[in-house]
Amino acid sequence: MRICLIASSRHPVRQPFAGGLEAMTHTLARGLAARGHEVALFAAPGSDPDLPVEHLAHRPFAPSEISLGDVNAPSRAWMADHHAYLSLMMQLARDGARRFDVVHNNSLHHLPVAMASMVPVPVLTSLHTPPLPWLESAVALDPDGSRFTAVSRVMARAWAHVVTSRPVLNGIDVRAWTPGEGGGPAVWFGRMVPEKAPHDAIDACRLAGVPLVLAGPVSDPGYYAAEVAPRLGPYAVHVGHLDHAALDRLLGRASVAVATPAWDEPYGLVGPEAMACGTPLAAYARGALPELVDDEVGALAEPGDVASLAEAVLVAATRDRAATRRHAELDCSLDRMLDEYEECYAELLEGDRVA
To answer: Are 159 and 150 in contact (CB under 8 A)?
Structure first.
């Protein structure tokens, strides 16, 4: 098939990834191309040149000082996003049928949904986030312009008041993650932001008597300075934002991975990536994590309860690493995700509903 993938205009799709959305988009583009599909990925400048990338907003737009002087003028960043997606959707409306068989929207912007009916080929939108007001508005105005999947069952339920969506859980290339022997410190990895609550991981591991290594970008310097940095010391160290190879090595040595979402995270690649290294997961039972983790491969804790999480860290570390790796291979794999998306594309081309 000839597939158009729409990504974020804010962050390049490249390592080290800004977040799970960029990592998933990178994996999806590579996987579809490896299966012989003709893929065009519309993504932010600076994305991985090894991908079939076409830059969003290839004709940059700078609003005039007069227009920005309006009391209700949006920010330059908002205008850049708006221009990027408006430009792309107008381009697809003009010549989408000449280039593509299907469009798969993985952005969080409202315009690919609002303008889907203008595109002469089927559009599939994956819901990567809980409902956002501008996305709800776009769906409400044209609920049949796009078909919808959700990256977890919890996201499908979150959107059920607006639209019906088919759960297609994210997948990872398990072959890119190396099973390790474990036995080392616990690991927490992700963006250093309040909604991911790495400070809870530090407190829980200290309570459990387990040393912790944290990895990830400092996306919220104020939060990091107030809540994370004061907790660092001999038993909790932050090693920065790691590329894939370094993170793979770190996870392979870890005795347990820790996930501490302070919100209902739509999916979370932390669990599958850790489990692909054979590393069991101790996590708050929030968002999609209960869909990914069972008693064979980890342990779940009461959300926000540090003492419960400390107990989960100790329990998860006893899980069998080979069984944990098998779980990732069977339930969290790229091949499973690609199979399901190919099925969605085929149904769209046949004129059937995906959900």
So the answer is: yes
Give the predicted TM-score (pTM) of the model: 0.88
How far from the centroid of its chain's Cα atoms is residue 191's Cα?
A: 12
The single-letter code of the amino acid at 25 is: T
2-171+334-349 and 174-331 in the same fold: yes
Residue 310, exposed/middle/buried by CB under 10 A (0-12, 13-18, 19+)?
A: buried
pLDDT digits (tens, 9 = 90+) for 282-308: 999 999 999 999 999 999 999 999 999
- The answer, yes or no, to whether residue 77 has pLDDT greater than 70, is yes
Tell me the per-residue pLDDT of 211-256, one tens digit each, with 9 for 90 and over.
Answer: 999 999 999 999 999 999 999 999 999 999 999 999 999 999 999 9
* 336 vs 195: CA distance, rounded Å: 29
How far is Cα 79 from Cα 157, in angstroms, rounded to an integer? 31
The residue with tokens 């609920």 is: 143
CA-to-CA separations, 337 to 26, 171, 238, in angstroms, rounded: 13, 5, 32
Spell out the SS3 assignment of 322-336: HHHHHHHHHHCEHHH
Q: What count of Cα atoms within 13 Å lies in the side-chain half-sphere of residue 190?
A: 24
The β-bridge partners of 187 are 213, 257
At 354, the pLDDT band (50, 70, 90 cuts) reads low
CATH architecture of the region 174-331: 3-Layer(aba) Sandwich (3.40)
Taking alpha carbons only, the member of 108, 145, 111, 100 closest to residue 126 is 108
Kindly tell me if the per-residue pLDDT of 353 is higher than 60.
no
Architecture of domain 2-171+334-349: 3-Layer(aba) Sandwich (3.40)
What's the confidence (pLDDT) of residue 340?
97
- Provide the CB-side half-sphere exposure for 104 (13 A, CA): 28
Residue that has been written with the tokens 């819901």 in this structure? 127
Compare 292 and 65 and report the one with higher pLDDT. 292
User: How is the chain split into domains, by residue range?
Assistant: 2-171+334-349, 174-331
* Count of H-run helices and E-run strands, the chain: 14, 13
